[in-house]
Amino acid sequence: MNVAVEAENISKSLGTNLIINKLSFSIPEHSITLIKGKNGVGKSLTLKMIANLMAPNNGKISVYHSLSYAPDMFPQNIKLTVQAFLSYMNKLNANNHNNIDKMSFYLDLLNLAHFQNKPLHQLSKGSLQKVNIIQCLLTDAKIIILDEPFSGLDYDSEKRLIDHLKVLSKTKTIILTAHDHNIENSTVTHTLNLDDHSFNRITTTEALKLITIPNHKSLHPDIQNLIQSVNSDENNRLMIKVYQSQSNAVIQKLINDNFDIIEVKDI
User: Model-level pTM?
Assistant: First the structure.
């Protein structure tokens, strides 16, 4: 497996306080890595060093792809509207000029479309966090760094974001911190524990279902965000693999989009 980010014996001090001491890890491509540990152990600091916003005092960090970063604190005094700010950030991405469809997709995904004409400085903490996440995801970067992305999000938006990160991890590398470690069992593929410098692969035990439908039109993005994979069989039918916990939602969306459900089975 190819490596996206690699750290070799990095150490970092703030003033005279040694926060991180001789930390090494290798984060594989196409993974979701949760950086966890006690308060003050250096989780955000590690993300900032990966993002090259801070340099380690000793050791070396190698980042092998382009990256995008969403900090845990987003400026609250920006006078631009949500749409104007995101349009500006979108244009900064050389490969993504004027991609209005992508911006609209993320506004809808995080239930923010009705706020797009509102100035950022008038938004709540949760809505401002959504803008923070969107400006990060709009880029074409191969590595996405999210510092406490779920802080302040409503349940529905958090669930939508988690499902979308799973989809993104098929082509991108996601590195994040989160106080809610419940995502560890349902979302992340690896954990970096700064308490003991351990790096572990997480194996999900959640059951999967296979949903078979006719292959006569494209799947809506809302469905694509919930599925793990989709393939065609020898009869040119679509075989959709989905976690059992998501299967009812996927089936309902397929029915709403006028798909016939040929078969649903456990795998």
Answer: 0.77
